[in-house]
Specification:
single chain, 307 residues, alpha+beta, 5-stranded antiparallel beta sheet, two-stranded antiparallel sheet, 10 helices, 11 strands, disordered N terminus
Length: 307
């Protein structure tokens, strides 16, 4: 057996033993060596099966990641598996719409009817609604989460009892409730505003909150769907903006974002060795390739041990 392999096995056993003997396990990644102390009640403990010092080849998986910040997170424990600049304030682009959907869920009944009265001429990606059409809130939320429709987000925001400003205020209030310390919302679409920022860590909290809702979780993994106005006359096919959904069966969502200031952003929900894991990349030049590199690293170097 090679010296490097012996070092690997020794490190792996020591690390797993350490995790299994801890009531509040913390995880460290070979890329970041950062620790997060978190409560854990689940029967699984995620542990890193290698370290850069023990297996130099692990760096091959992470070479040339273009994202300024990234994070891989075990969903059930919120344990960090891999990270870089997880607290850096960056532009979130359309990942903001996860909060838009959450606030809409708080404010409206999903079967409430909303009329399209404004927001039709917003910039960015649009579904293409027309003035005067009426939709159920659930279909507007679908347009937000599946198709990333800015017009759908604006219609809901403008329908808030306190108007557009009231909706944005509700977004920031919910951000405080969720302890999103690096996040400020300025609009419900994610279009660039210099003071609208978030972080990979905050987006992971937001994503975990969103997927608690079975309706949201289902929408986020649909490759496409059709929504119809309440008259039944107008149909819109919504295509999911997350290209990984069609390419990898392990992907279960979640939200894309692209703007000039944000670059490419992606929150993706994966099944890694039958465990739910969030991978978040921000300010990326190629979000899909960056995400796949992180996913392959996780497949190679992370194991879950039953406690």
């Amino acid at each position: 057996m090679s010296t490097q392999k012996q070092q690997f096995n020794q490190f792996q056993q020591q690390f797993i033993t350490l995790l299994q003997s801890t009531t509040q396990p913390s995880l460290t990644s070979s890329a970041s060596a950062s620790l997060v102390d978190l409560d854990r009640s689940e029967s699984q403990i995620a542990s890193i099966a290698a370290a850069t010092s023990a297996v130099d080849s692990s760096s091959n998986f992470l070479n040339d990641i273009s994202a300024t910040a990234y994070l891989a997170l075990d969903v059930e424990s919120a344990a960090i598996l891999l990270d870089k600049n997880l607290g850096a304030q960056l532009y979130p682009a359309s990942t903001v719409k996860l909060m838009t959907a959450l606030v809409a869920r708080d404010v409206f009944d999903l079967n409430q009817v909303v009329a399209v009265q404004n927001g039709l001429y917003t910039d960015g990606h649009r579904v293409g609604f027309s003035y005067g059409q009426q939709f159920l809130v659930r279909d507007l939320v679908a347009a937000i989460l599946v198709n990333s429709g800015n017009d759908a987000a604006m219609v809901l925001a403008n329908h808030h009892p306190q108007g557009y400003d009231g909706f944005v205020q509700a977004m920031n209030e919910k951000a405080k409730t969720l302890n999103l310390k690096h996040t400020v919302f300025k609009n419900p679409t994610g279009l660039d505003e210099y003071s609208q920022v978030s972080s990979a860590w905050d987006l992971s909290i937001l994503a975990r909150e969103a997927i608690k809702d079975p309706f949201f979780k289902q929408l986020a993994q649909l490759p496409q769907m059709v929504v119809t106005d309440i008259s039944g006359q107008y149909n819109y096919t919504l295509f999911n903006t997350n290209k990984l959904l069609a390419q990898h069966r392990e992907v279960k969502g979640l939200k894309t974002g692209t703007t000039p200031l944000a670059g490419e952003v992606l929150i993706s929900l994966w099944e890694v060795k039958a465990q739910p894991v969030l991978i978040i990349v921000m300010q990326s030049d190629n979000r899909y390739q960056d995400t796949l590199k992180i996913y392959r690293w996780l497949q190679t170097y992370v194991v879950w041990q039953s406690s």
